[in-house]
Specification:
- With 211 residues, this protein is of the alpha/beta class.
- The chain has one domain: Rossmann fold (3-Layer(aba) Sandwich), CATH 3.40.50.
- The protein has ten helices and seven strands.
- The chain has helices at residues 20-33, 48-56, 71-80, 95-104, 116-120, 123-132, 148-160, 174-180, 186-189, 194-210, and strands spanning 7-11, 38-42, 62-65, 85-89, 107-112, 136-140, 164-165.
- It has a seven-stranded parallel β-sheet with strand order 3-2-4-1-5-6-7, with helices on both faces.
- Helix 2 (48-56) links the parallel strand 2 and strand 3 (62-65).
- Helix 1 crosses helix 10 and helix 4 packs parallel to helix 6.
- Bound molecules: adenosine-5'-triphosphate (ATP) and magnesium ion.
Length: 211
């Protein structure tokens, strides 16, 4: 069972462009489709998830913005409004914001691309998650086709840092890019596509983790 009410997923990574917002809006949308009252809490001053919601218009999920220091209060308000599934999107290069999100979460997802510079950015997260003792998983994102060796090497880097890798990986797929730019999700622009199937697998895995 989730330790908090609502079930709360934090998406953190110190690296810009790793896929935090993409993951946040896809998971919150999938949760809404599953009948959850889900929302994204966007703690990033860039407010990309909020922009995605503006482009989307009057459709679920709800996206609210919150300064990291008010995160607890924002989640509490969400709960009072009946939300049972919250995804926290966080800014890059921001220790304090990541710390607050990790503290508030039942589970932490750390999207990363497979390049060395991206993997190097995993290190500062290790201490943050260890301190909060929140279960955390690295999610390989935008994995190029045929990148078997790269994936194995990245798994080794994560393991050496003591991080667990999520068994579901997201490929480098145009549907993620195209859909987000329109306020949609991969499943909405291409329901039978590989990106949609990966999100589905990730959602099923996440649900299991949350009990
Ligand atoms: N799996 C993927 N395949 C293709 N494009 C992707 C994938 N994941 C993310 N992208 C694209 O990469 C860019 C960065 O993704 P996103 O905004 O989700 O990263 P971020 O970690 O939230 O960035 P920031 O740190 O700036 O907040 C976006 O244009 C997005 O559409
Ligand atoms: Mg973002």
């Amino acid at each position: 069972m989730a330790k908090s009410d609502p079930a709360t997923v934090a998406i953190v990574s110190q690296k810009g462009g790793s896929g935090k917002t993409t993951l946040a809006v896809h998971l919150a949308t999938r949760a809404a489709q599953a009948g959850h009252q889900s929302c994204v809490v966007d703690t990033d001053p860039q407010a990309s998830a909020a922009a995605w919601s503006d482009w989307r218009g009057d459709f679920l999920p709800v996206v609210v913005t919150s300064p990291p220091a008010r995160l607890g209060r924002t989640i509490d308000n969400a709960r009072k409004q009946g939300m049972d599934f919250v995804v926290i999107d966080t800014p890059p290069h921001a220790d304090a914001a990541a710390r607050e999100a990790i503290k508030a979460a039942d589970i932490v997802l750390i999207p990363t691309r497979l390049r060395a510079f991206d993997l190097a950015a995993l290190e500062p997260i290790v201490d943050l998650v260890a301190l909060a003792r929140t279960p955390a998983f690295v999610v390989f994102n935008a994995v190029p086709a045929g990148a078997k060796l790269l994936t194995t090497e990245a798994e080794t880097v994560a393991a050496n840092l003591g991080l667990t890798v999520c068994p579901v990986k997201l490929g480098e797929r145009a549907a993620f890019h195209r859909s987000s730019a329109k306020g949609e999700t991969a499943a909405e622009v291409d329901p039978e596509g590989k990106a949609a199937k990966e999100v589905e697998r990730l959602w099923k895995w996440l649900r299991k983790q949350l009990g």
